[in-house]
Amino acid sequence: MYAALAEAQSVETIRPPGSLSLVGVLHHDQALNRAHDVELQGDFAFVSGKGGSLAIVDVRDPRKPRLASFLHDPVGLDDAETVLPMGDVLLLGTRDMLAIDIRDPARPKILKKIVDRPRIDSINGMALRGKHLLAANKRGFIAVFDVTRPADPIYIGARNTKDTEGPLSPHDIAVKGDYAIVADTARNRPANVYVYRVANPATHELLPMERWTVEGAVANTSGQELVGANRLALWNGYGAAGAFEPDRIGVFSLSDPARPHTVATVPACDIDATGMAVSGRILFVAGGECVEAIDISDPSSPVSLAQYRGGALFPTRRFLLNGRPRFDNGHDLVYRDGYLYVTAQNDNRLGILKILDNRILELARPQEKIK
């Protein structure tokens, strides 16, 4: 199920000049089949693909990304959407939860698969809290796993959110102290971002799922709607979520978990905002045919500093899925050491952008971690 090396392209595209430069692209229709999420660990990028793929990419030289290996199984890895490298093991969220041995990047090996429909299905977001992994399932559940031993994750159970108090379609999840923040893509809802208390306030130990409570929700008030909240990013008492109708990015305050509220919205540089990553005082966003760097020094007044559009990373505006057009090409991104690693879902690509603007590099210097 793994294959030989693929050739990488080396390109140079700057839009606008002096800001973001596409320096490397890897394209592979099997290894990056509908490339979805990307994470980095050491010299490698790990990319999940909704077409049933996991790619391990050598990025020691960001200008020459090289495919180390891949798994491709449209049935067994169907809807692979999210990845989490944990040392020698990678956790892969598909319609199941998988633990994969990555000690030899050239020969990944599936160690364990956990199946429990419908409580485990379409895992689109994962977040670590100590020894526990929380996984957002778009079918209406949040699953919990004990990952004390990542090679042998233990399934604890799942919280049904759609039939109780909260998200109909949990699309992403993030952790802040004793709380979990959950994004809901459902439409026609009074809120699309929910704050769950998931830990005991005295001991900070994870609570049994039946004792989780919704402490607050970011209300969809006029002009500040976060309809279709997709991906989340958190930093220093704030969060951001992508939304559509209209396509925008919403910044919200988490200073009081019982009263989270939107403090600013800005237009997305293209459709939606399916990928988000924060470094320092910069929010990086991917969506449609665009990658954007936004200054969040003042969360109530975010400022777009640079955008990359189209080019060799996003040559395809849309593709047909079940006869319907899909436009969400740029899907996820991660930042490290002056480079952005970006997935292109419609074009089965991983692109690497170099940041050439010193102002962005300075603002992106890592700050204190979320507490």
Describe, in plain words, how this protein is organized in 3D.
- The protein is mainly β and 371 residues long.
- The chain has a single domain, classed as YVTN repeat-like/Quinoprotein amine dehydrogenase (Methylamine Dehydrogenase, Chain H, 7 Propeller).
- 2% of the residues lie in helices and 50% in strands.
- The chain is built from 1 helix and 32 strands.
- The protein has one helix at residues 358-363, and strands at residues 8-9, 13-14, 20-27, 35-41, 44-49, 53-58, 66-72, 82-86, 89-93, 97-101, 109-114, 123-129, 132-137, 141-146, 154-160, 170-176, 179-184, 191-197, 213-219, 232-235, 238-243, 248-253, 261-267, 275-279, 282-287, 290-295, 303-309, 319-321, 324-326, 330-336, 339-344, 349-355.
- The strands form 8 sheets. Strands 1, 2, 3, 30, 31 and 32 form a 6-stranded antiparallel beta sheet that branches.
- The longest helix has 6 residues, at 358-363.
Number of strands: 32
Helix count from the secondary structure assignment = 1
> What value does the average pLDDT take?
91
Describe the sheet with the most strands: 6 strands, antiparallel
Question: Termini separation (Å)?
Answer: 41 Å
What would you give as the CATH superfamily? YVTN repeat-like/Quinoprotein amine dehydrogenase
What is the CATH domain class?
Mainly Beta
CATH topology: Methylamine Dehydrogenase, Chain H
CATH architecture: 7 Propeller
Estimate the helix proportion, in percent.
Answer: under 10%
Class by alpha and beta content: mainly beta
How many structural domains in the coordinates? Answer: 1
Shape: globular
Low-confidence stretches: 1-18
Please indicate the percent range of residues in DSSP E strands (runs of 2 or more). Answer: over 45%
Radius of gyration: 19 Å
